[in-house]
Design brief:
globular; Beta Polymerase, domain 2; about 240 residues
């Protein structure tokens, strides 16, 4: 298991917290949820965050947080999938509560991100704001390298492949070794398909199975008309 004791630089942690809306800060401080993934990565490397990914210990806790946000007088569009509950209210950054993967410990969540450039979490405890990142988080961000982590979480087989495609489009790169690891996961899942031996006798038939596996994990990528907006949340 990788060492996950590294932390965000203090200036990066302050930048992340400053950019969080006040109602999200309140939820993190009072309801035991935490921030992870893309919002942190984007701010550290100077990109515009697409959304705010929040994780928690139970679906009941997450549903409570969704209810509390709606009671704040906001009227967001709510998108529910098997993976997340997403609150969409442009120009405010979309808020995405992950329901497919539940965690009591932010460090456990950290270990299950599929790429090291996403392995970052921020949470609150009695000592204040805390953070953890993968040991190669900063180095991989600086070199724009996609390092695949082979996460043990239950996931759609093609989810990481599609996320890799998204990152490649943003100028990141992947080594042959990491690409091979990712292709191996998709290949194993493909051969486990119940109809693989019966129908996969040609490349086109195998491609049909692969198309079924390449399902999008991130619901924000299937929401039309939602673009990243640079919003200063300090006054919200």
């Amino acid at each position: 298991m990788a060492n996950v004791t590294d932390k965000l630089l203090q200036e990066d942690l302050r930048r992340v917290v400053r950019r969080l809306p006040k109602d999200i800060i309140k939820l993190i401080q009072e309801k035991g949820i935490f921030l992870g993934g893309g919002f942190i990565r984007a701010l550290v490397c100077g990109e515009k965050p697409n959304d705010i990914d929040l994780f928690g210990p139970s679906k009941d806790r997450i549903e409570l947080c969704v209810e509390l946000l709606q009671k704040e007088g906001r009227k967001p569009r709510v998108l529910r999938t098997d993976n997340a509950i997403t609150l969409i209210e442009p120009p405010r950054a979309a808020v995405q509560f992950i329901t497919r993967w539940l965690y009591d410990d932010p460090r456990q969540c950290l270990r299950e991100f599929d790429f090291t450039i996403a392995q970052a979490v921020v949470w609150w405890d009695e000592s204040g704001w805390r953070s953890a990142v993968a040991p190669t988080f900063y180095a991989d961000l600086a070199s724009r390298r996609l390092r695949y982590t082979q996460p043990s979480r239950n996931e759609d087989a093609g989810g990481s492949m599609l996320r890799m495609r998204k990152f490649l489009g943003r100028g990141y790169h992947v080594s042959a070794d990491d690409l091979a690891l990712l292709m191996a996961r998709v290949t194993v899942k493909m051969t486990q398909h119940p109809n693989f031996n019966a129908i996969a006798t040609s490349e086109n038939e195998q491609a049909d199975i692969l198309r079924g596996l390449l399902r999008e994990v991130d619901p924000m990528l299937v929401v039309d008309g939602i673009d990243p907006v640079e919003v200063d949340h300090e006054d919200q």
